[in-house]
Amino acid sequence: MADKSPKESTIQSLRSWGEGSVPPTLLATLITAQHFRPFQPLPMMFPPVLLFSSYLNLSGYQSDAAGITAAWSGLYALLAMRRKHSVKQKFGARGFVRGASLGLCAVNVAGCGIAYVFGKREKEEAEK
Protein backbone atom coordinates (compact mmCIF):
# COMPACT_ATOMS: atom_id res chain seq x y z
CA MET A 1 0.00 0.00 0.00
CA ALA A 2 1.06 3.53 -0.65
CA ASP A 3 1.89 5.79 2.24
CA LYS A 4 -1.09 8.04 2.93
CA SER A 5 0.73 10.85 4.71
CA PRO A 6 -0.64 14.27 3.79
CA LYS A 7 1.48 16.20 1.34
CA GLU A 8 2.96 19.51 2.30
CA SER A 9 0.82 22.41 1.23
CA THR A 10 2.25 25.28 -0.77
CA ILE A 11 2.17 27.57 2.24
CA GLN A 12 4.05 25.06 4.38
CA SER A 13 6.72 24.51 1.73
CA LEU A 14 7.14 28.29 1.26
CA ARG A 15 7.45 28.70 5.02
CA SER A 16 10.09 25.98 5.27
CA TRP A 17 11.95 27.66 2.37
CA GLY A 18 11.83 30.97 4.23
CA GLU A 19 13.12 29.45 7.45
CA GLY A 20 16.25 28.08 5.77
CA SER A 21 19.66 29.72 5.66
CA VAL A 22 20.39 28.82 2.04
CA PRO A 23 18.05 31.26 0.20
CA PRO A 24 19.76 34.49 1.36
CA THR A 25 23.19 32.96 0.72
CA LEU A 26 22.19 31.87 -2.77
CA LEU A 27 20.77 35.31 -3.59
CA ALA A 28 23.92 37.01 -2.27
CA THR A 29 26.00 34.75 -4.53
CA LEU A 30 23.92 35.61 -7.60
CA ILE A 31 24.04 39.34 -6.84
CA THR A 32 27.80 39.22 -6.38
CA ALA A 33 28.26 37.31 -9.63
CA GLN A 34 26.25 39.93 -11.46
CA HIS A 35 27.60 43.17 -10.01
CA PHE A 36 31.15 42.51 -8.87
CA ARG A 37 32.76 42.96 -12.26
CA PRO A 38 32.47 45.77 -13.21
CA PHE A 39 31.96 46.80 -9.61
CA GLN A 40 28.62 48.51 -8.96
CA PRO A 41 28.48 49.93 -5.43
CA LEU A 42 24.71 50.21 -4.92
CA PRO A 43 23.77 46.59 -5.76
CA MET A 44 26.83 45.34 -3.87
CA MET A 45 25.33 46.69 -0.63
CA PHE A 46 22.87 43.77 -0.66
CA PRO A 47 25.16 40.70 -0.29
CA PRO A 48 26.56 41.63 3.16
CA VAL A 49 23.05 42.16 4.54
CA LEU A 50 21.83 38.87 3.05
CA LEU A 51 24.83 36.99 4.43
CA PHE A 52 24.19 38.56 7.85
CA SER A 53 20.61 37.34 7.57
CA SER A 54 21.91 33.84 6.91
CA TYR A 55 24.15 34.14 9.97
CA LEU A 56 21.17 35.22 12.10
CA ASN A 57 19.23 32.23 10.85
CA LEU A 58 22.02 29.85 11.86
CA SER A 59 22.22 31.59 15.26
CA GLY A 60 18.62 30.67 16.04
CA TYR A 61 16.72 33.77 14.95
CA GLN A 62 14.79 32.21 12.06
CA SER A 63 11.83 34.58 12.18
CA ASP A 64 13.94 37.75 12.28
CA ALA A 65 16.26 36.46 9.56
CA ALA A 66 13.26 35.66 7.38
CA GLY A 67 11.98 39.23 7.76
CA ILE A 68 15.34 40.72 6.81
CA THR A 69 15.65 38.39 3.82
CA ALA A 70 12.13 39.18 2.60
CA ALA A 71 12.64 42.93 2.89
CA TRP A 72 16.06 43.05 1.23
CA SER A 73 15.04 40.61 -1.50
CA GLY A 74 12.10 42.84 -2.34
CA LEU A 75 14.32 45.91 -2.38
CA TYR A 76 16.81 44.24 -4.70
CA ALA A 77 14.00 43.11 -7.02
CA LEU A 78 12.76 46.70 -7.25
CA LEU A 79 16.27 47.92 -7.97
CA ALA A 80 16.92 45.25 -10.60
CA MET A 81 13.58 45.73 -12.35
CA ARG A 82 14.44 49.36 -13.04
CA ARG A 83 17.22 48.36 -15.45
CA LYS A 84 16.17 47.83 -19.06
CA HIS A 85 17.85 45.17 -21.17
CA SER A 86 17.62 44.48 -24.89
CA VAL A 87 16.52 41.10 -26.21
CA LYS A 88 20.14 40.18 -26.97
CA GLN A 89 21.17 40.76 -23.37
CA LYS A 90 18.35 38.63 -21.94
CA PHE A 91 19.57 35.37 -23.45
CA GLY A 92 23.22 35.42 -22.42
CA ALA A 93 24.88 34.25 -19.24
CA ARG A 94 24.28 37.58 -17.51
CA GLY A 95 20.62 37.50 -18.54
CA PHE A 96 20.23 34.02 -17.11
CA VAL A 97 21.83 35.08 -13.80
CA ARG A 98 19.62 38.19 -13.71
CA GLY A 99 16.48 36.11 -14.33
CA ALA A 100 17.50 33.59 -11.71
CA SER A 101 18.15 36.32 -9.14
CA LEU A 102 14.79 38.00 -9.84
CA GLY A 103 12.99 34.67 -9.59
CA LEU A 104 14.78 33.89 -6.35
CA CYS A 105 13.82 37.34 -5.04
CA ALA A 106 10.15 36.60 -5.73
CA VAL A 107 10.31 33.23 -3.97
CA ASN A 108 12.22 34.79 -1.06
CA VAL A 109 9.68 37.58 -0.63
CA ALA A 110 6.84 35.05 -0.56
CA GLY A 111 8.50 32.33 1.52
CA CYS A 112 10.40 34.52 3.94
CA GLY A 113 7.41 36.82 4.32
CA ILE A 114 5.25 33.88 5.34
CA ALA A 115 7.96 32.59 7.68
CA TYR A 116 8.25 36.03 9.27
CA VAL A 117 4.51 36.55 9.69
CA PHE A 118 3.80 33.07 11.09
CA GLY A 119 7.14 32.56 12.86
CA LYS A 120 7.44 32.39 16.61
CA ARG A 121 10.17 33.84 18.73
CA GLU A 122 11.71 32.04 21.67
CA LYS A 123 10.99 34.86 24.12
CA GLU A 124 7.30 34.94 23.23
CA GLU A 125 7.04 31.17 23.64
CA ALA A 126 8.90 31.24 27.00
CA GLU A 127 6.49 33.84 28.43
CA LYS A 128 3.40 31.76 27.64
What does this structure look like?
The chain has 128 residues and is mostly helical. The chain has one domain (17-118). It contains seven helices and no strands. It has helices spanning 10-18, 22-35, 46-58, 62-81, 87-90, 93-118, 122-127. Helix 3 runs antiparallel to helix 4 (62-81). The termini are far apart. Keywords: Membrane, Transmembrane, Transmembrane helix. The chain crosses the membrane at residues 60-79, 100-119.
Brief digest:
The protein has 128 residues and is mainly α.
Keywords:
128 residues; mainly alpha; single chain; transmembrane helix; transmembrane; membrane
Major beta sheet summary: none
Q: Count the helices. How many?
A: 7
Topology as a string of helices (H) and strands (E): HHHHHHH
Distance between the termini: 42 Å
> What is the total domain count?
1
Shape: globular
- Integer-rounded radius of gyration: 17 Å
Transmembrane segments: 60-79, 100-119
Keywords: Membrane, Transmembrane, Transmembrane helix
